[in-house]
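Sequence in, structure out. Go.
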Amino acid sequence: MPDSIEWIADAWNARGLYVTCARGLSPQHLAERMADHEPLEVRSAATLQEASSLVDMAQVYCVGRIGQAGGWSFVVESGASEGWALDPAVSRGAEVLIFDPRPDDPPAFFSYHADGEVQLHFELGAGYDPAGSRPDLLRPDLEAAGVIPPQDSIDDMLGTDEELSAHAQQRRVLAVIGEHFGLPLPRQTIESGRLPAVVTRTAPPSSW
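Output:
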């Protein structure tokens, strides 16, 4: 599909991008639900570098840029994001996908929230140990793509012969996620273009 999201893994290698997407919410509404303050101010369009420069770690801890593609809204953040602890209530009446690189505490992870509940959560690292109310949602797709061996197979117990780097594994998993959810993310626009900026965090994450 166009704008396959596997490029997110490349961005994770180059910089700490936190990507949150929603279907059923406008970009601004998604950002409002994610923000730790109100009212949310939508600022002028900015490049990724310009948005990152707004983070001062005193009054601004995280800045996002908002947009929309293929029926999905997205917020791409830089700074001290807390995607790993985003309240599932953000997904009330909607679907929310979270892609968090966790640069300070790897591995990266993916979460799918819908109607206020965690449907699926798993780490993009060694092994596959999904959680949530629908842990097997992506298993058939991941098996078909050769990302994980069939459940209860010998390979599932002993591991496959194919050795993939962590980066290659992330790219393959992200491609499956993007295809399953019909999620296109415009790489050029996000990495090189200008998008409206929003401050999503004015205080340190609660984990600090």
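Check: Residues 157-161 have pLDDT under 50 and may be disordered. The first helix runs from residue 7 to 14.
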